[in-house]
Design goal:
By secondary structure, the protein is mostly helical. Helices cover 75% and strands 0% of the residues. The chain has 13 helices and no strands. Helix 2 crosses helix 8 and helix 6 packs antiparallel against helix 7. The longest helix is centred in the first third of the chain and has 25 residues. It is elongated, with a radius of gyration of 19 Å.
Length: 217
């Protein structure tokens, strides 16, 4: 992990409005270049050419290339997870687990199969740089783990309320998410078409198996 804290880079940190705008432009440019060229081939000079400004500004804000990648991932994750607050709201609305999990599953596929998410997944799985381990760790923490933490918290709350019986909510969350994703992420990386009907069926069947199993009832 870099010596630059991602959370610090994704938040105001006392920057002026002009400084915040400069930071946003750099992070947006970094996302474009990383997705287009991969991490190893991404040029800091190209990023700053698109964002405008000096290299000294980039190094002052983010420390180095890895710090910039970490800040970009945190910014992206924060934007994506604003939508996942719906899961927490579902608890307040007293939705059934079936309703909440369907909501979560549909939102998961919407995010995971977006061009941006597919591009980032391709980036971290194909990178061969000397910092491969660090960027994969950053991606996992800001993506899969953060998604899983939110779902496992919901499952844990349902166990505490006596609605569900689950030995390990964290493991169960990963199992549910993998059932929903199936082979869609790989197919998206290969440029294969995934229909809305397929996505709907995948979510509904994953919820059904997760909650009720596959034995005859």
């Amino acid at each position: 992990m870099s010596n630059v804290h991602a959370e610090d880079n994704a938040k105001p940190c006392g920057l002026t409005p002009k400084g915040l705008e400069r930071q946003r432009r750099i992070l947006d440019a970094a996302r474009e270049v990383f997705l287009e060229q991969g991490y190893d081939n991404a040029s800091i000079n190209e990023i700053m050419c698109r964002a405008g400004g000096s290299l000294s500004t980039l190094y002052r804000l983010f420390g180095n290339k890895l710090g910039l990648f970490e800040a970009m991932m945190t910014q992206t994750s924060n934007r994506v997870f604003a939508a996942f607050e719906a899961v927490e709201c579902s608890i307040k609305r007293k939705e059934t687990p079936e309703q909440a999990l369907k909501r979560y599953g549909n939102l998961l596929l919407e995010r995971v199969l977006s061009p941006e998410a597919v591009g980032l997944y391709r980036l971290i799985t194909t990178d061969c740089s000397s910092e491969r381990e660090q960027i994969q760790s950053i991606f996992f923490a800001q993506g899969p783990k953060r998604i899983n933490d939110k779902l496992s918290a919901y499952l844990h709350s349902q166990v505490e309320q006596g609605v569900l019986t689950i030995r390990d909510p964290e493991l169960a969350a990963y199992q549910f998410l993998e059932m929903v994703k199936g082979n869609f992420q790989l197919r998206a990386m290969l440029g294969m078409t995934i229909t809305e009907a397929e996505r709907t069926q995948a979510v509904e069947q994953a919820v059904d198996i997760f909650l009720y199993g596959v034995t005859v009832r």
